[in-house]
Amino acid sequence: MRAILIEQYGVPPVVADVVDPKVPDGGVVVRVEATGLCRSDWHGWQGHDSDIVLPHVPGHELAGTIAAIAPGVTGWNVGDRVTAPFICACGQCRECLDGNHQVCPNQLQPGFNYWGSFAEYVALPFAEVNLVRLPDELAFDTAAGLGCRFATSYRAVHQVGRIQAGEKLIVFGCGGVGLSAVMIAAALGAEVVAVDTNPAALALATRYGAAHVVDTADAERLVDLTGGGADVTMDALGSNQLVQEALRSLRPRGRHLQVGLLPSGVQLDVSRLIGQELQWLGSHGMAAHAYPEMLDLVAQGNLKPADLVTRTIGLPAVPDALASLTTPNATAGVTVIHP
Fold first, then answer.
1. Considering the domain boundaries, does residue 157 fall inside one?
2. Is residue 37 domain-shared with residue 143, that is, in the same domain?
3. Which of 31, 82, 157, 294 lies 20 to 30 angstroms, CA to CA, from 271?
4. How far apart, in Å, are the Cα atoms of 213 and each of 157, 168, 177, 321?
5. What CA–CA distance (Å, rounded) separates 135 from 28?
6. Whose CA is closest to 332, among 206, 207, 174?
7. How far is 313 from 311, CA to CA, in rounded Å?
């Protein structure tokens, strides 16, 4: 099959012919119809993920049709339209039995623990736990973005951050995760402030429901804009500087959502966390069993993830598109790859 192959960290990958994936025990192989280009893929390409072993095929947001099924897997057929979370949980550990698949200690992530979806085919383990059936009316391009950015934002904003109607949320970084958060929070009735240096990203944030857009992460200005501080802040990019501004932008007893990866670590003003009784909340993906609620809102038109897709490309364009993520504000919206 054709795939994007990373042979050295930080060096542009190539389109290569590689071996087809084998069907894992208890899993399936999916023919990839669409796969999202995510900043997490950029982190992997830069060598920020210790699970990756070179040479490597990235890609973790995907949608397609089942091409092969392992013996013993029930409930699924070749040709079924599916997606899956980027965290493929084992379904048997204590966390999984409690429903917390997104923190399964035995998880496997396509594009990180093993070869991913920037390819014509990808293997998915633990199929009965992780496959999500796609409605016929949901386009593959839209579904591809659900597995990481949109589902991650949905859980972060709705389930972890517990955003309520009338609350004020500041989203720092309007890439795919941030724009998804803007759309979801606005649909929940929150007043959203979007912060980014990219005018195109801020224009999309306004389109998706942001009440205010700001091109500078300045806590003093944001506190004034929110009338004393936000109820919730969210770092959707992964930046020590943004974390500091986010924490200073909160009202007392506010909640901070950390979704952006911080490979270089972060410095925290712990005395402020204690003195203001602030909450630091990490959020990591969303389990497959939680998808139906989100998909129902998409079907009803309350959430419109299709609007987030601003570009589609083929495999030959992936190396340049991946490199463009080195500059966070180089593009706006979600890029989807058609392998």
1. no
2. yes
3. 157
4. 18, 13, 16, 26
5. 19
6. 174
7. 7
Cα angle 36, 42, 47; round to 5: 140
The position carrying tokens 């490597």 is 56
Residue in this structure with the two tokens 């009965």, named with its chain if needed: 128
309: three-class secondary structure by DSSP? strand
- Alpha-carbon distance of 300 to 294, in angstroms, equals 10
CATH number at residue 14: 3.90.180.10
283: Cα separation from own chain's centroid: 11
Q: Do residues 285 and 152 touch, judged by C-beta distance below 8 A? A: yes
- Residue 154 domain-assigned (yes or no): no
In a domain, 209, yes or no: yes
Q: Give me 232's structure tokens.
A: 């919730």
pLDDT tens-digit series, residues 202-221: 999 999 999 999 999 999 99
Please report the DSSP string for 16-42 in residue order. EE-PPPPPPTT-EEEEEEEEEE-HHHH
Asked if 147 and 86 count as a contact pair (C-beta separation under 8 A), the reply is: yes
Q: Count up the domains in the chain and report the number.
A: 2
Contact assessment for residue 336 and residue 37, using Cβ atoms and an 8 Å cutoff: yes
The answer to whether residue 225 is domain-embedded is yes
Same domain, 7 and 134: yes
Tell me the pLDDT tens digit for each residue of 150-200. 999 999 999 999 999 999 999 999 988 999 999 999 999 999 999 999 999
